[in-house]
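Researcher: Next entry in the queue.
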Amino acid sequence: NAGTITNKALTSNVATLTTSAAHGLAVDDEVWVEGVDVTFNGKYTVTAVGSTTTFSYAKTASNVSSTAVSSSTALVNKIGSINIEDESTLASTGYLTTGYIRYGTLEPKNFKRLLARGDFTYGSLTLETVDKDGTEYDHITYETGVTAVEVGTSQPDTAQEYVAFKFILNRDTTTTSQGPVFKGYQAKATIATPRQRVMKFPVYCFDIETDRYNVVSGYEGKALARLQLLEGVEENGDVVTWQDLTTGESRQVVIEQISFTRMTPPDKRFDGFGGVIEITIRTV
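Model: Structure for this entry, 284 residues:
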């Protein structure tokens, strides 16, 4: 490659990048930029070479102030060139990115644990999460003195349908022929679907009833009919709408359980069948 990118800037639709070492590029060279960000990444033609470590190309986008680039995978490659393998000098850095992981379900998930295995005596391995927008979140770097432990991945901080994982390998800073050995990884996630609520409430059920305005309603057999109707809904597991007329809350629920306690009507003017129904519902 032509070098690792250490700085970026964009002014009046001209992008200028700085490399950590001499890039060897010339005007009209075609280059591939990666690992910087969505504004700078892509295929371009060099329009100017400011110095041995800076070059420019045309890019129509909003201005970007001169900013340092810290990612070790921000690289520029000259298109048409090749990399020659050297047993005694490994590439300074490289990375592996997994495909998107969804665990076979479209439900949102909280990706919370990540672990990599390998030999990190030489060089280092950095673990990152990549979300659906391509944003990378750095979690930990394994190297000499840092045990390869399972880490909590607190970013991204919202539930995701899927993510990818990126593993950045850096060769040893002293021995250029040595680097990390990456053998595998393990990720853990929990389902982030809204939890169901279980509610229990009692209701009066009598043949003849009086509302808060002292209006009497009902007929003989009404209480039993209403009880049997509720029992039928419970038995079939139908989804029904539950409304709390006091709070205005309305939810789709299933009836988990119905229990009936036979009682004498609270108003001594009335008699007949009735009691208290205790209904247990679960939101869906």
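Model: The helical segments are 222-236.
Researcher: Noted, moving on.
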